[in-house]
Amino acid sequence: MKDVAKGMHRVLPHLDAILSSPLKRARHTAEIVVDALPFQGTIELCDQLLPGTPVGEVYSLLSGFRSNQNIMLVGHEPGLGLLVSSLLGAKGSVLEFKKGGLCALDVEKIPPAHPAILLWHLTPRQLRLMGRT
Fold it and tell me: Which end of the chain is more exposed for a tag (fewer CB within 10 A), N or C?
């Protein structure tokens, strides 16, 4: 994960918030990411990112942020894939995350009035390779 986080540093020049599931693996991942990125804030532990949480509850969490903020979510599959798929306007899961995977979305509003735009989706392998160069 440390090599993955180095790759994240290359594609995430700025983060306003890091929200993490309170479960141990997600918290630990978020801590590794904080060590690798130029992030001065604290990790916010959010029960809404626990496995099995309905997408609507995650929308409620995210609706408190401004539209121009860069927010990283650290959670679990299949929940993150369902959330991103929902933001993209899909009825079911169309995007899957491997452990350490990352994507960027341009989201106009939460809940979305229009589908978000997928800017990029990177696998852990791609991020590790980016972190080594």
Answer: C
